[in-house]
Amino acid sequence: MNEQPVTALGGLASPRGFGWIGHLIPWALALVFYSIAGGYLSLGTSALIMILFAMSLDIALGYAGIVTLGQAAFFGFGAYSAGIFAIHVSNDPILGLLLATVLTAVFGLITGAVILHTQGVTLLMLTLAIVTLLYEAANRAIWLTGGDDGLQGITIAPLFGIFRFDLFGRTAYLYSLGVLFIWFLIAWRVVHSPFGRSLDGIRQKPARMRAIGTPVWKRLVAAYTLSAAMAGSAGALSAQTTKFVGLDTLGIFLSGIVAVMLVLGGVRRIYGAFLGAVVYVVVQDFAAKVNPFYWMFFIGGLLMATVLFLEAGLISLVDSARDLLKRLFSRRKTP
């Protein structure tokens, strides 16, 4: 089992060689983008939401080894929960986000407790069944979800009663960035804790982990619930920032998209979700402008190149650049 060291600071000194400066870089870049993005802030907000969504899949698939193609079930569940809450109860964004996160976590707990007794193809089919059932339920409950027309009429109150969600997307971007940062801290602490290392052992040798007394099923359900909560938060952010929820949030296609993002960036690397989601969103936007009908050829080519030449995903390029800089600095210090 590949164990990773955990520091007294909660694992924030990465075993992959990222120090504090390395951790600050992506967040600094996000703030720089905010200051120079102009009309692209909405695209940046979408990228932040997709980062959180991809990170949720990495917890389940990458770290816990739970084979799933139904992650969109949690994204859509969170989106509809936040949207319906905003229309019928309260349009406070924080309350809506918290409610959607909790409800999706409960939904993940219930479904996980049922399906995680299985594994392999059976488990994969069950996750697909769940997302398909939710899709059909949302499609038929027109009185609640809007059906094919989507959930419309969502209004969101100013954040903390002060910051309005303007047309330029400034509040939406910073709001999404703040939520992502909180979830990043939680995810990083979890995967670099003894619980996270036990998930790594379960992913590799579940029988051996049972033999040493590890409650495998309970650990998997806990990881699945955490993953569902993160995906639900991403869905809630999507509903609140776009003020619309469509059936595509519960589509199997969306589950495939987030899997592609994760593979592009790198599985079992939290920052892999960052790279994969950002690259996917940017390439998709650029390719759709070049050819709105065949943009998936660009994505497919990028995915094939990544799988063939970068086994660990795009994050391996960052590792190589870091190692190169280390060698250069060490040579300069050598008399």
What is the secondary structure topology, with strand pairs?
Elements: H1 20-36, H2 41-63, H3 72-88, H4 93-115, H5 120-140, H6 142-145, H7 170-191, H8 194-204, H9 206-211, H10 216-242, H11 252-265, H12 270-290, H13 295-309, H14 315-333
Helix pairs in contact: 2-7, 2-10, 2-11, 2-12, 3-4, 3-5, 3-10, 4-10, 7-10, 8-10, 11-12, 12-13
Task: Quickly describe the structure.
This protein has 335 residues and is mostly helical.
What does this structure look like?
This protein has one domain. It is 72% helix and 0% strand. α2 runs parallel beside α7, α4 runs antiparallel to α10 and α11 packs across α12. It is globular, with a radius of gyration of 20 Å.
Q: Briefly note the structural class of the backbone.
A: mainly alpha
Domain unit count? 1
**Percent in strands:** under 5%
The number of distinct helices, counting runs of at least 4 residues, comes to 14
Order of helices and strands: HHHHHHHHHHHHHH
CA(first)-CA(last) distance: 40 Å
- Mean pLDDT figure: 90
Low-pLDDT sequence parts? 1-15
Give the CA-based shape: globular
Please provide the count of β strands.
0
What kind of sheet is the major sheet?
Answer: none
Helix content: over 70%
Rg of Cα set: 20 Å
List keywords for this structure.
335 residues, mainly alpha, 0% strand, globular, disordered N terminus
